[in-house]
Amino acid sequence: MATTRATTPRTDPLTTEVVDLIGTIVARYHDEYEEVATRHALTGAQARVLGLLSLEATPMRRIAQQLKCEPSNVTGIVDRLEARGLVERRPDPADRRVKLAAATEGGRATARRLRESLRFAREPLAELSPEERKVLRDLLKRMLGEPAA
């Protein structure tokens, strides 16, 4: 019975409403992200790569996996970010054959300003109590198949 339930899509009104709400949230977040990126003279893809690299130096192949795109696309994005001084390439200390892309100090500052400019998610979340935000986080992680914190 559990197998049938897991493979049969739910089409009840509540599920449909939740799916529609998630879609609306994703669309609004995407629109704001693109708008904020443009204000920093970046494309949305460049802003996403810069955001990832501001957290840690990463091999190009892993960036492509995280963004679900071809490595050649990431190469072009990193080239443009590098030309602006936001990203640099360096050898991986664990394997000198691998190149890591890393945000420069200016790139980390730009990524921080980008994150701070995104109001859509932050402001509505401020309306929720810390407990409600934890429940929402755990439910979203559960939906993604990740362990709750």
TrEMBL record:
Gene3D superfamilies: Winged helix-like DNA-binding domain superfamily/Winged helix DNA-binding domain. Keywords: DNA-binding, Transcription, Transcription regulation. Signal peptide: none annotated. InterPro entries: HTH_MarR-typ, MarR/SlyA-like, Tscrpt_reg_MarR-type_CS, WH-like_DNA-bd_sf, WH_DNA-bd_sf. It comes from the Bacteria. Residues 15-145 form the HTH marR-type domain. Pfam families: MarR_2. Transmembrane segments: none annotated. This is MarR family transcriptional regulator. It comes from Streptomyces formicae.
